[in-house]
Amino acid sequence: MSPTSSHRMRRATALLAIAWALSAILPSVGALRPPEAGVDHPFEDSRLGRVAVVQAVHPSAAAAGVEVGDRVVTLDGRPFFPIAQQSGAARRPGVPSRYEFEKPDGRRFTVELPPVPISEIYRPFDSLVHGLLLVVAIIYLGTGAVVYWLRPERSGAWALLLFCCTLAVQLAVTLHTDYIQGATVHLVANAPLIGATTFHLFTTYPIQPGWVVRHPRIQVLPYLGAGLLVALELAEGRLGLPPGRGEELAFFYMAALVWLSLGILAVERRRHGDGPMREAADVVTLAALVSFVPVLAVFLVEWLTQKPYPFYLALLWTFVFPVAVGYGIVYRQLFDLRNVARSSAAYGIASIGITGAFALLITFADSLVSDFGVSTRSAQVALLFIAILLFNPVRDRMQSLADRFFDRDRAAYRVAVREISEAMVSMLSLGEIADRILVALTDTMGVERAMVLLVEDEERTLRPIASRGEWDDAALSLEISSDHPIWKQLWMRREDLTRADFDDEHDLESREACRDVYDTLEVELLVPILYGVDLLGVIAVGRKLSGDRLAADDRLLLRTLANQSSIAIENAKAFDEIAKLNETLEARVEERTNELREIQGQLMQAEKMKSLGQLVAGVAHELNNPIGFVHANLQLLDEYVQKLSDAQAQGADTTRIREAIAKLILRSREGTQRVKKIVQDLRTFSRMDQAEIQEVDLHEEIDRNLALMEPRFKTRIRVEKHYGDVPRVRCYAGQLNQVFLNLLMNACDAMEEDGTIRITTRRIPGGVRLEFADDGPGIPEEIRSRIFDPFFTTKPVGVGTGLGLSLSHGIIERHGGRIAVESEPGQGATFVIELPLDAAPIEA
Fold first, then answer.
1. Which uninterrupted H or E stretch holds 171?
2. What is the C-alpha separation between 805 and 787, in angstroms, rounded?
């Protein structure tokens, strides 16, 4: 069966078991109060064996000689037991029935007894016990459901849920069976199921026998037997069996499986010797004996003696069993019963002593008051108050001593955790951290040996880094790669794991691989060292020198150590990385600086190519016009030259032909001059950024960019130039041209329809000021501070890169100047550039 189908089957059976329990508990709640109307037998009986035994008698029946302990044989000539099992059997008021009873000595007698009102035979004490049993039933159901909800992957949780549901049914319908709808069906079907679920639980947790591991279908056989017995109970009349024989067999079946389960647990406990598995078996066995053996003993005695006993009282403390087992399944550890018992006894003795001393003190105070003739209530109250004030410090001191004595391990752990936390803050060596962990484990916790394994980042492998105690070569050379199942389990579960935590692993190969790690290291516990989502290492812990198991406090200390060490390990790794970085810091900084310069140059060149690409269409049109004109003139010139040759050959006048040729040559020369100027402007604009710094006329550079932009302006955009008297500036002209072109293009893009671009220049102290203004929609205030950020753009995807203004900002700053924007929504935008006269770039 695959893990998926197995989980699906468990979920389905778990829901059925819960529904079975609720079908008994919910009707039982209504039986807490007896029916106000109706009649019943004039006696109450216990129906544990083949016959019913009287356990309470109404006065009318007592007057007829019926006594507690008598067995009810027949009712109106028919066997009483099958009729009594029918909770819906009607009894009519005032109509007597004929009963046959049998005394303990074998004498039989027959009497006619009328039914009595239920209120007269109903005992309030039974209602109290019934309510308490319902509480225990709810505890069973709740415990099983919570454990299964928390640990659905564990087979022990599933087995516990089935067991708790069957016990909850039994507890809910044990009393007031006649008043609970469907109680008889629950009693008939539930007894063999108790035996089946007990066998299932005890062969699953805490120790699963090897023969069950090899043949898991064995656990199904008791359920099949329970089903056959239920069918037998329901059909015993048709099969001709004696009344009650099916229930008798079901009882023996249940008892046999319960005792068999305890025997299997005892055998497995002995096979495992000393260790956590045996300790778990001890606790489960003890809880089972305390919870169920008294109940089984009462059942057996009642059946053998045919006398009623209040077995239901023994059921009240059975809630201890599911709570203890559920705790062990969820947390993989058991209650420290010995320490709890010792501390409880000490507290009890101290409390008795304190109470006795307190009583003596009060008695002495009363006597003293009487001797002095003081009898007022105020004096007695005052002395009582003084006694309490004097006694409270003594009580607190005794409690503190008891806590210190029985909690000294926990106190030592708290001191160890504080010292480790303080020490690890300053540790920057992985070896020191591992040694500090091992000291805490061996000296404070008292384990016989321990090991710390850390992950090597390059190979992603766990390897031992430090150890204490005796280890063989196989353990010291152990390597656990990141694809090992134990690595995955420690990383995913993120909790300390024992060997038993892998008993529920469906993949047999993965289970054995994980167990091999524990067997190789011969340890009890593996604690992961986690930092965020990363597994940094593992703490392997052996047994304690005292022979005690690793209790909850021990595991809490281990988890705390793991958490503290994870931070220290990360700090140590960060320190090592910083040290390595410092060794090559200057070289790395220089290398990174060169890379950034290259990237910056590439970005600038890419932005320039983008700008040139946007000008291609317009420039091509500007070149095509004069070239086409020159080409047409050349054709006309060819015709005029032919005419000139013909006229000269004929001796005709060639003056007009010569004038026409001169005009064609002049106009062609004008076209070629236009082409030359466009090409020169493009060459000037696309000068390499690494060209030497030189003095340039900013007006000429601006005009050159305006000439290139003229195809985009056409008649749509008007350019106003307000040039002032500005001197020449030393700069990289190619870089400034890129800035000017970017600002002009952005202005064109901002003005979707007609508009005006105003360019203003003037001299300022130590430099020049350039202003590029447009009457577009302006720049909103919320994005004005971000327009110079790299890759920030308001243009659609694929239209703008967000690099133009960022690169322009960088170019101006490298020239020792500054660029800023002034804008109001709806009033256009103005970009202001201030450059020094000697715009030598600042060294980066």
1. helix 155-173
2. 7
Every domain of the chain and the residues it spans: 3-24+125-331, 39-120, 337-406, 411-581, 584-686, 689-836
For the cut 70, the answer to whether the pLDDT of residue 312 exceeds it is no
Q: Which residues pair with 36 in a beta bridge?
A: none
Alpha carbon distance 124, 129 (integer Å): 9
- Tell me the C-alpha to C-alpha distance, in Å, between residue 127 and each of 28, 46, 133: 11, 16, 10
Identify the CATH number of the domain defined by range 3-24+125-331. 1.20.1070
Q: Which two tokens stand for residue 432?
A: 């020191």
- Model pLDDT, residue 75: 82
Residue 87, pLDDT score? 47
Cα–Cα distance, 94 to 114 (Å, whole number): 6
How do strand 525-531 and strand 534-541 relate by DSSP bridges?
antiparallel
Long-range contacts of 716-720 (CB under 8 A, 24+ apart): 716/753, 716/754, 716/755, 717/748, 717/751, 717/754, 717/755, 717/756, 717/757, 718/754, 718/755, 718/756, 718/757, 719/756, 719/757, 719/758, 719/759, 720/756, 720/757, 720/758, 720/759
Residue range 319-339: average pLDDT?
A: 70
Q: Which residue has the higher pLDDT, 786 or 606?
A: 786
Note the CATH number of domain 584-686: 1.10.287
The crossing angle, in degrees rounded to 10, of helices 585-650 and 552-583 is 50
Question: What pLDDT, in 10s, does the model give residues 288-298?
Answer: 777 777 776 77
DSSP state of 316: G
CATH superfamily of 411-581: GAF domain (3.30.450.40)
**Cα angle value 464/467/469 (rounded, 5°):** 140
CB 596 within 8 A of CB 589: no
Residue 88 DSSP class: T
| pTM across the whole model | 0.50
pLDDT at 462: 86
How far the first Cα of the chain sits from its last, in Å, is 70
Q: Which fold has domain 689-836?
A: Heat Shock Protein 90 (3.30.565)
CA 55 to mean position of chain CA atoms? 56
Q: DSSP characters for 343-389?
A: HHHHHHHHHHHHHHHHHHHHHHHHHHHHHTT---HHHHHHHHHHHHH
Overall average pLDDT of the 754-777 stretch: 91
